[in-house]
Amino acid sequence: TLSDRLTATFKSLRGKGRLSEADVDATIREIRRALLDADVALPVVRQFTSRIRERAVGIEVSQALNPAQQVVKIVNEELVGILGGETRRLRFAKNPPTVIMLAGLQGAGKTTLAGKLGRWLREQGHTPLLVASDLQRPNAVTQLEVVGQRAGVPVFAPERGVSEGQGVSGTSQGDPVKVARDGVAFARDKHHDVVIIDTAGRLGVDGELMQQAADIKAATSPDEVLFVVDAMIGQDAVNTAMAFMDGVGFTGVVLSKLDGDARGGAALSVMGVTGQPVMFASTGEKLEEFELFHPDRMASRILDMGDILTLIEQAEKAFDAEQAEKMAAKLAADEDFTLEDFLAQMAALKNMGSLKKMLGMLPGMGELREQLDNFDEREMDRVEAIIKSMTPLERRQPRVLNGSRRLRVAKGSGTQVSEVNTLIERFGEAQKMMRAMRRGGGMPGMPGMPG
Ligand code: GDP
Ligand code: MG
Fold first, then answer.
1. Which residues bind GTP (predicted)?
2. What DSSP character marks residue 174?
3. What CATH code is assigned to 339-440?
C-alpha cells in the first residue's frame, strides 16, 4: 500500500534536517503512483506533483514531523485544496423556484440522484418537484415516478402531469424541452420551491444528447446544473466531464457509486480539468445513501492515507517521532487479506476432494457435505484464472479494479466481466470477515464460533 511505501521512504529520510530535491522526488514518485492507481488523470497528476515539489523542496524539519511526513502533510493540504477546500452548498434562487438540472451519461445515476436530492431537500423543509425530462427510454418516466414516490416527492411528467393525483394535463408529451419548461411553470404556480429536472443520457458522449441537454438548460435557466458521474469510470471521467462542460456546461459535480471499489480519483480529475466542485456523493442504491461531498475525506481516500494522517496527528500531539515510526511498522505488519491469500486458500480447498468422502462417512455431517457437493471445481478454476489475470497490485488492492481493468481481466481469463464483478464482491465479503476476525478474534455471524 501507499502507506507501506511511504513508511519505507520515511525511514530513509529520518534524521535529515532539510529536504533535498532527491528526497522530495522519492516521496513524490510514490504519491504519483498512488494517484495514477486511483485513476486520477495524468495531466492532473503532473500539475499536482509539480506544485507539491515547489512547496516541499527545502522545507525545514519541524520538531514533531520528519521530512517525509511533512511532504505528506503538504500533499494532503494540496489535495483538499484542489477538491475545493470546503463543501460547496447548493445555490438557491432569490425568486423561487430554484431550478436544478441533472446531466450525465446513461447509468450515471441521475434518476436515483433526483430522488435522493428530492428527499434530502424535503427533509430540510423544502417543497421539491421532480420533472421527468428523460423521454429517451420507454420506462424512464415510470422509473422517476417510482423514485419520487419513495422519496415522498411529486413528479411532473408528460401526459400524466403530476403524480399523486394533483393532476395537470400534459400537452408536452414527447418533447423533453417542453416538459422541462412546463415543469418549472407548474412549480412556480403550485409553489414548489425547488425543481429537479431529470434528463436523458446515452451510453457514450453523443451530439444529439448534448444538444437536448443544452436546449433544456437554455429553456429553464437552471440555478445549478449538476453533472452526475459514475466514480467507477475512472480515467474516462475526464473526457466525459470535458464533453459535458463544453456541450452543456455545469456548475457542480455529483460523484455516484462511491460505495463501490472506486477510489475517487475521478473527483480529482473532474475538478482538475473543469474547475467545478464536487458537491454531493452518492453511495448506494437506497435514497438515504447520499451525502455532502467532503474534500478532506476524499483526499485521504484518494491517497489511501488514512493511516499516514493518523500517524501525523499522533506525531504532532506527542512530539515523538520514534513512537510514530513504531506505529507505522505495526500498521505495515497488519497486512490486509489480499486476493493472493484468497488464491492460496483456493488451492488448499482444491485438495479437499477427499474430504467430501470422509465427511460422508461421519454422522450428522449431511448439511456440510451438501455444501461441499455444491462446490463446483470448474468454477474454482475460473476464479483462479481471473485472479491470475490480475496484476500484483490488483491482487493486493482489488479496489483499483475499475471498469476498464475488469474488462481486461475478463478478457485475459476468458470470462465475463460479471464473473469478475461477482468474484470481487465475494472477495470483499471475505476480506471484511477477515478484518473482523483480526479485530475481534472470532468469526462474525458464524454459529458456534466465538466473537
Ligand atoms: P441514470 O441513467 O443516470 O438516470 O442512472 P440511474 O439513476 O437509473 O442509475 C443507474 C443504476 O445505478 C441503477 O441501477 C441505480 O440503482 C444505480 N445507482 C445509482 N446511484 C448509485 C450509487 O450511488 N451506488 C450504487 N451502488 N448504485 C447506484
Ligand atoms: Mg435516468
1. 104-111, 198-202, 256-259
2. T
3. 1.10.260.30
User: Does residue 201 have its Cβ closer than 6 Å to ligand 1?
Assistant: yes
Query: Which atom of ligand 1 lies closest to the CA of 289?
Result: 23
Ligand 1, residue 104: give the atom nearest the CA. Answer: 3
83 Cα–ligand 2 center, Å: 27
Task: Pick the ligand that lies closest to the CA of residue 141.
Answer: 2
Question: Which residue has its alpha carbon closest to ligand 1 atom 6?
Answer: 109
| Distance (Å) from CA 140 to ligand 2 centroid | 6
Closest ligand to the CA of 176: 2
81 is in an annotated binding site: no
Find residue 290's DSSP bridge partners.
Answer: 282
Q: Read off the pLDDT band of 359 (50, 70, 90).
A: very low
Task: Determine whether domain 2-86+301-333 maps to CATH 1.10.10.10.
Answer: no
Sheet holding 194-199, edge to edge: 161-162, 155-157, 128-133, 194-199, 98-103, 224-230, 252-256, 278-282, 290-292
Q: Is 167 annotated as a binding residue?
A: no
**Contact between residue 196 and residue 366 where contact means Cβ atoms under 8 Å apart:** no
Q: Is 70 exposed, middle or buried (0-12, 13-18, 19+ CB in 10 A)?
A: buried
Our answer on whether the CB atom of 172 is closer than 6 Å to any ligand 1 atom is: no
Note residues around ion ligand 2 (Cβ under 5 angstroms). 110-111
Higher pLDDT among residues 297 and 172, named by residue: 297
Fold held by 98-293: Rossmann fold (3.40.50)
Distant-in-sequence, close-in-space partners of 160: CB < 8 Å, separation ≥ 6? 141, 145, 170
Alpha carbon of residue 96 to chain centroid: 32
Name the amino acid, one letter, at 289.
E
Residue 254 Cα to ligand 1 midpoint, Å, equals: 12
- pTM equals 0.64
User: Which residues neighbour 153 within 8 Å (Cβ) at sequence distance 6 or greater?
Assistant: 115, 118, 119, 122, 128, 129, 130
For ligand 1, atom 9, the nearest C-alpha belongs to 109
Widest distance between CA atoms in the chain: 79
pLDDT tens digit string along 288-318? 898 888 887 777 777 665 545 554 454 455 4
Q: Is 2-86+301-333's fold the same as 98-293's? A: no
